[in-house]
Amino acid sequence: MQAQTLQKIEALFEKYPQKRGALLPAIYLVQAEKGHVDSDAARELAELFELQPVDVWEVLTFYNMFYTAPQGRHHVYVCTNLPCSLRGARSLLKGIESHLGVHCGQTTADGRITLGHEECLGSCGTAPMMRVDGEYVENLDLVEAKRVIDGLD
Amino acid sequence: MIDRNATIDGMQVSIHADETVLEAATRVGVTIPTLCKGRDLSPEGGCRLCLVEVEGTSRPQAACHTKLADGMVIRTATDRIESLRRDILDLTLSAHPDQTFDASSPQTEFEELLAQYDLHRSSYPDRAMPATLDQTHPYLRYDPSRCILCRRCIDACESIQGQFVFSIESRGIQSSLCYGDDDSFLDSGCVACGACVDRCPTAAITDIDRIARVKSDRVTRTTCGYCGVGCQIDVRSRDGRITEIGGAKDAVVNRGHLCAKGRYAHAYQSADDRLTQPLLRNGEHLEPVSWDEAIDWVSTRILSIGKRWGPDALGVFTSSRSTNEAAYLLQKMFRGIIGTNNIDCCARVCHSSTALALRTVTGTGAASASYEDIELAKCIVIAGANPTEAHPVVGSRIKQAVLDGAKLIVIDPRRIELAEYATCFLPLRPGTNVALFNAMAKLLIESGQVDVRYLEERVDGWSELEKFVEGLSLEQSAQTCGVAPDRIADAAQILGEVGPALFVHGLGLSELTQGTESVMTLCNLGMLTGSIGKPGAGMLPLRGQNNVQGNADMGAMPNLVTGYQSVQDSGVRERVGSIWNATIPTRPGKTIPEMIDAAAAGEIRGLWIQGEDVAQSDPNETHVRSALNNLELLVVQELFLSETAQYADLVLPAAGALEQDGTFTNGERRIQRVRAAVEPPGQARPDWEVARNVACALGAHWTYSCADDVMTEIAAVAPAIFGGVAFDRLGDDGLQWPCPDRTHPGTRRVHESEFIRGRGQLICVEHIASPEHSVDGFPYLLITGRVLEHYNVGTMTRRTPNRTLRAEDTLEIHVRDAAREGIVDGSRVDIESQWGSTNVVAQVSQRVQPGHVFLSFHFPETHTNRLTGPQRDAKSNCPEYKVTAVRLRTPETQSPPA
Ligand code: SF4
Ligand code: SF4
Ligand code: FES
Ligand code: FES
């Protein structure tokens, strides 16, 4: 973990009544630095937070926007919750899988894109939708999805 | 008066405070099925299998979480409830591949439930997740395909062992049990206590013994043969072979809990190299002989040495691993038949200073408190002990007490595991306890945080101590022990505010040149805080080996006959002599280190060593080995051809702890039954039987036919403390001495109303540095000690899969020192003291302080005790294992000493 990240995490501590309260934002910071948080990083965090490594691991793996393995340069996450599914999200996801040649949960061989699915992102009115990195792309069909994906570097 | 009652399945049930419906139902014999609630665990509330109908509420309630209240009408097995339960089981089953569970021949709790609800296949679509079996651990197995995520193991590991190994990773259908951070079982923080194995309802977590389980034909309740905690175990066996060991669930000492040694390390019992016949030396070789020949030979040799050189040319070391009955008979044989007081046991080289100190200031050398005081304590002081490794079951009880809010002060040169739990940790220089305890006494006295009433009513020497501490400088003491004055003040303040305290202490106090003084000054703190004799407080030395307490009790000491009666006292000699029909010699005998010196000097010609590997365990190894070489007669009773046995003229094959009858006495003075679970291999014999047979060959008429007979005599010889002890009274949990007569229930706490010696004694004594503290050219201080996976010289644990858990002794060295010396983790280092040298593997760590190194002595090839020297405590003769000046060299650097 870089000194800068460490500093930012330490600055978080005073904002919470208990140190461990800062764990979630701290994981975000580590992930921002490295792109993912592996078991070594979890151990470092555990030491810093005076927690058992397994406690950090539990939090880390509970949230699906934290990654324990290296990710592609871009995240493409398709919402597959009920409203999106009713509007064709499942076949959309299948289409993207064959377009990219990877299964949901995998990263393309060139390390460009990690494809995943997500539960409701609160954008049901514009279903189906996907999240590309931090951005929502809504009212999708496969053609539009491919266009957006192909536009990623 | 209003009747406070509820009804469960039509039965009237009284209301007990805080009792849940589940507990009340169990109490009246109604079984409610549970999955997530396990024995001794808190209710998790997740599985909902324990649902019951509560009249007046529309929804069923979880019995494990619902408190039974006045007027409640509960039905535990209505049609609705049973169909809900079946559905829960059905859903649970759907998450596992078909054939994972076998309801037709149920082996586990979960399978029994499936059988009860006649569920063989799930009616729901299969939603099993891929899973890999974890077989990395030498004892434990985790099979995720069997895990129903009930979380019992998580709770067991936390709330019984205090280890926090498990958690749940991910969520929803992907949830799975994880340990550490994505580790294997072997690399996780698991200490192989087996608490989770005992509670997993599906055998998802299990162990190699259970996997290999065959129907046992015998279960024997006995006492664990490892450390002085004295856990009760249930040994399963079949056809004379041990198949599995479990903790006895109702035992007061361990309540079903065990450690990696007691539960799993039993393979040594059937090891191929067990001694199975007597071996007699013929030149270079040891050759098998019959017992008759062996006994004939040894009795003739003993008689001839006695005749030629006098009885004091003979001596005996009894074994702290053997039974009270064996120790008693051996000391009786040497005193009564051979006519010498040259009798000692390995308590000499561990807790002799503790026993002497406690006896001097309180009147008895044993613990004043019991293990149950751990849970009652508000403040625990651990000094020079590492319970989570050397006494793991007590260690886990201390952890739980601290997690429940007790304050903990840890005084140890090393950052032992419990230091992480401590309210205050004082990492002192080894061998400076007296300085530290005096400083704490000064702070307590000067801040007025002492128990004035207790001191006035029960203790002598208060004003002297007040005057003595006035002359001490806190800064100087702090400098001597290398701990900041503020830290010492913090510790004193906690003690003063929260005391009385329970003082748990170990060899880190006793194995020093000031061993006796260290324990005496700790007792000062015990008395100043009014702790000794109070519930949840007092002195609790942790005794090392399973029966080291018992060996001392039995009179395996040169100056004391059975029951701490002085051989100098003619009344004692007469009374005991008349029971023995023998004359007890008056000449004081020698201690173990003195006998070794005398053997080297040719004054002692014949030694009998019972189950003790002095060639590996005693300090100054080179000297010990040359002493053994010098003997005319060396008899060794052993399980294996130990380092010491290789010097013997006669080796007698001994029965192990799992193979003989008798008693062991644990560190809280509890005399517990030892019962043979299996037969000893070949011609190996119980130690007490061998002593009897040799005594008879020496001309005595001993007629004991069983260990029970021996205990009857012990009770008669030492009525004040054992008068009421008899096998028929020992039952499952034994008796704590003193127990003077048959109606006496045993003594939980000694010195309750007054000290055994009348008044307690405060001691004024200054710190004196060990000669080892400053030796030119030897800049590091070596501390020796133990690790969890092994026991003493390792003869037993090295012959078990514990070897996979820990394959060698390693030298712990601080990162800074390692960097300076150019030592990398895992590299070999030459380590040298004034007394000898050896070569070991370095483990770079932050557990030791800079300037200190730590080495265990479990493997003979380590030769740890080549390094330790001849320094001893002047009063008790206890060797100084804890402070040795050393220097280090790496093959690469060969750096000259600083
Ligand atoms: S391993 Fe066993 S005890 Fe632990 S959660 Fe799974 S089924 Fe329950
Ligand atoms: S064996 Fe003991 S320490 Fe290991 S995981 Fe199970 S409960 Fe925890
Ligand atoms: S279901 Fe897809 S955004 Fe809500
Ligand atoms: S046993 Fe009560 S909810 Fe599991």
Please describe what this structure looks like.
The complex is a heterodimer of chains A (153) and B (898). Helix content of chain A is 46%, strand content 12%. By secondary structure, chain A is of the alpha+beta class. In chain A, helix 1 (3-13) packs antiparallel against helix 2 (23-34) and helix 3 (39-49) packs across helix 4 (53-62). The radius of gyration of chain A is 18 Å and the shape is elongated. Chain A has two domains: 3-62, Orthogonal Bundle (Arc Repressor Mutant, subunit A); 74-150, 3-Layer(aba) Sandwich (Glutaredoxin), CATH 3.40.30.10. Chain B is of the alpha/beta class and 898 residues long. Chain B has five domains: 5-116, Ubiquitin-like (UB roll); 140-270, N-terminal domain of TfIIb; 279-349 and 547-720, Rossmann fold (3-Layer(aba) Sandwich), CATH 3.40.50.740; 352-541, Dimethylsulfoxide Reductase, domain 2 (3-Layer(aba) Sandwich); 771-889, Barwin-like endoglucanases (Beta Barrel). In chain B, 30% of the residues lie in helices and 18% in strands. Chain B has a seven-stranded mixed beta sheet with strand order 14-13-27-26-25-15-16, with helices on both faces. In chain B, strands 32-36-33-35-34-37 form a six-stranded mixed β-barrel. In chain B, a hairpin with a 2-residue loop joins strand 13 (279-282) and strand 14. Classes of the chains: A alpha+beta (153), B alpha/beta (898). Chain A binds chain B through residues 39, 42-43, 46, 52-58, 61-62, 64, 68, and chain B through 164-171, 178-183, 188-189. One FE2/S2 (inorganic) cluster (FES) binds at residues 34-37, 43-50, 62, 64 of chain B.
